[in-house]
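seq as requested:
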Amino acid sequence: MKLKALTLTAILGLSGPAIADLTLSSPAVAQFNAPLATFSDGEWSVTIDYNNNAYTYYGRHLRTGDTLTLRGAVLAGTPERRLYIWRNGDYTYQVAWRPNDPRFVRLQVLDPRGREV
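struct tokens:
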């Protein structure tokens, strides 16, 4: 089942970040009841992994091949809506995930003032 993707994620490091709703492009691994899988909106691919006691975010722009790796997420939210938060300089990458809808995540990228970009 294909879910609608809304926007892009970030143009990595050099350009400003963006927002994306991403859909699962491969079967989820339900380890630790977390969104450990690869999600894609057709332009960006984001993989969330858990290794050595840390969550890692791997972003890849499918057209340009640009990549971004962020390690060591802070966990927040509730059991019904979990937040995984990474920092990249002054920007914040926040993945919201609901265990009852495991094939879908929402990625928000926030600028230094806390505004979505």
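The chain has no helices and nine strands.
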